[in-house]
Amino acid sequence: MTFRNGLDTLLRPEDSVLVLIDHQPYQLTNLNSHDPQAIVNNVTALAKLAKAFNVPTILTSVIADRGGKIFKHITDVFPGQEVIDRTWVNTWEDEKVVELVKATGRKQLIIAGLWTEVCVAMPAIQAAGEGWDVTVITDASGGSSLESHQVAIQRMISAGVNMMTWMALAGEWQRDWARTEHVEELTEVLISHMSGSGIAYLWEQQLLNTPTPTSKGGL
Question: Which backbone phi and psi does 40 adopt, to 5 degrees?
Fold first, then answer.
């Protein structure tokens, strides 16, 4: 087994390309591994994160006329961007998607989609076998059952695919708080999508901007 370790294995925004696969109504109706609301929240956060860090993002659906358009939450992040509608179940067999990914010149391929056991596992395993450094964002993906999601993750790990959550990805892309160029956008993503941490940050800002009360006659 080849272990994934060392500084060079961490993800870098300048080397990353994101592919979002089949976040569509049909798939959502039989999503049983996660709370559907959580998946919508997480994939929206992932999309905004990619935009904040200038990471090229490919949007793709499968037979949208029947399965529905990908979530508005995602397309609103990339207004006017083409969504590639496929017939292939395996996105990595769609030449248009693959050519767009190759055109970025980047080798850290990040994938999230519905469902994990089909539309995520197939391209992840194929791309890993072709030499791509593949990462799946597990909490922006989901399966038709908890078992199917977990088994798909095990299968992909066995194939050499890296697993992360969207917040872990944010940490690797940011890496150093002294890098301020994306901090404002990242903070907005955390406020909107990181639940308690986002609210805590706003509370902290409120406290920092609230004058300290003094007693009557005090200093």
Answer: -60, -45
